[in-house]
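Deliverable D4.2, example record:
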Amino acid sequence: MNIHHLPKENCTASVWSGGLTYEYMIYPKTARYADRDFVFRISSATIEEVPSAFTKFKGYHRYLVMLDNSLHIEINKEKRTYEKSEIMEFNSDDEVTSYTKGIDFNWMVSKKVSHHKLIITKSEQHYNAQIIILFSLDTTVIKINEESYDLEPYDLLVIKNQEKENVMLHFSNECLSGILDF
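Output generated by the structure prediction step:
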């Protein structure tokens, strides 16, 4: 089992049509965002332009969570509202337009991946997935099988668990928890 701590402060910004995006991780490491050949990508973005059309990614499932406020959005011309920290799921090739400024969490997963899920986690969780992602919403201590990791807001912890061992997690505060199996 390999555990990687990816602090927000180490992410480099790049420009998208509606603001800035900060890539935490692209998997596999040899993949390129521009080539759209990744299995998954984790990022956080600022939405600075209203309205903003989200970038399309054919063949990907997407999770988005607003980190600082609610989200007023249209998906394929249907108006929806998501509260702060509410998980939004959609096909990444949908027509998506945001009418809210703010900061979000993004997780794009290839539709070739058989099993993936994102939830908001508090207290304790057990996983045996190949990849476990943990995104801190606040200052958080995450205990993984008795070892502690201190995370600042918007830090990411990635557990690569190829042996699919049973991993026990304990959280001092809420986190976004994602699991992925190939």
